[in-house]
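Record 1 of the preview.
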Amino acid sequence: MTEEELTNIQNIYFDNAVDILIRGDDIPSIGYMFARAGREDGILEDGNFKLEIVKTTEKDTDDDEGYSMIAVNMVPDDEELLGHMISIFPNLGDEIAQMMDKGKRIFGLSEEEVIGTAVTSILKVNNINRGDIVAHVVKNLCKVTKAFAFMHISAAYQIPLEGPQERTECIMSSLEGHNFRRLITAPIIRSSPDDGKIISVGQKEEQVNYQAGGRFASLLQTVD
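->
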């Protein structure tokens, strides 16, 4: 799959996300892994991962494996996040089970409440946040599937690198391949500054091979 093909897909999904925003709906924070077709079979059988095969291409030649585009939930609920935590910290499985049982029997908490309490406790004890767990899971999924690209689209806030300007609400899409990166942003325009209705987005800006940072940078396995 070429860089141009990936860029075209990113443009299409970005424009679709803009349409969703202007309709008044929320953009789901979804990540998309691109991997050779068939590499996703193992992880789809794991109940901890809520994945969806968005698209699978046909083989063009006998040597061509085709590719799969796999959607990953980047904002999991507490139940899904707890499943991720247990896979990351397997030694905590028994402790979590005891904590949840105690919450139900002694404190009369609901299933939803004990799961939320367990998630909060694990995050606090390990001095991490939800984003750290998601980044770990996505990086592992990219490794297992040997993904050759990863794309993420969400609504976000852009913070200026210099000057006293306030952060800008925007729609953002990042695309990472083994040899390139591409970031698209466009400011969100509301009918009033105080969380008014979204009426449009501003001019789209593009950065290619920019210096990425943060927990979601360099998600792909290094190619030898």
